[in-house]
């Protein structure tokens, strides 16, 4: 099992950055919960733990201690930026002590590629910093800054569920590539009296095949491929 630790930044008494009627803590949590759901629903062999799943206060040490004691394989801290209202875009961070050829840097390259492929934001590049969550984690760690909440254009995206889904999916695609995760099959075989009559992805098609066989079948088996 690959163990992914997802850390929605801020929460509870700490709203993080604010702007355009949004609180960073809520955007971070929304993205993080979507990322968790995509990983758990779409892939096999992955476990997820989160620093918070609701609007509660967690110290930075609580977050990194929790990930360390769980022995996570990868730590993903999700944030949004703020600056002067006109600055826009996406950037991500690894710890400043790491070389560009380190495992963590190589993983970040993949995350960066997958996230910027879909997020529609200005790309501000790959950065490094001495942030607590990057320094105090025993495993590879990345911190993503998904747009500027005090910029009207970026904030408009943060209010779109399509955009939130796309950004979460970009993170999930990166994790799947890094850890070579196997997608969950969505295709089901329909077997009537021991003979496969079809394989279908759409629930309606599965249902039609079953209804057609039902009047005469001795047994109908629906089996995930
Ligand atoms: Zn933040």
TrEMBL record:
Give a Pfam family name.
Amidase_3
Q: Can you tell me which residues the record assigns to a coiled coil?
A: none
Protein's name in the database:
N-acetylmuramoyl-L-alanine amidase
InterPro entries per UniProt = MurNAc-LAA_cat, N-acetylmuramoyl_amidase_3
Per UniProt, the keywords (alphabetical) are: Hydrolase
What SUPFAM superfamilies does the annotation carry? Zn-dependent exopeptidases (SSF53187)
Q: Which GO terms describe its cellular component?
A: outer membrane-bounded periplasmic space
Among the GO molecular function terms of this UniProt record, one is: N-acetylmuramoyl-L-alanine amidase activity
Q: Which organism is it from?
A: Alteribacter keqinensis
The MurNAc-LAA domain, residue ranges: 64-176
Q: Which GO terms describe its biological process?
A: peptidoglycan catabolic process
The keyword Magnesium is annotated on this UniProt entry? no
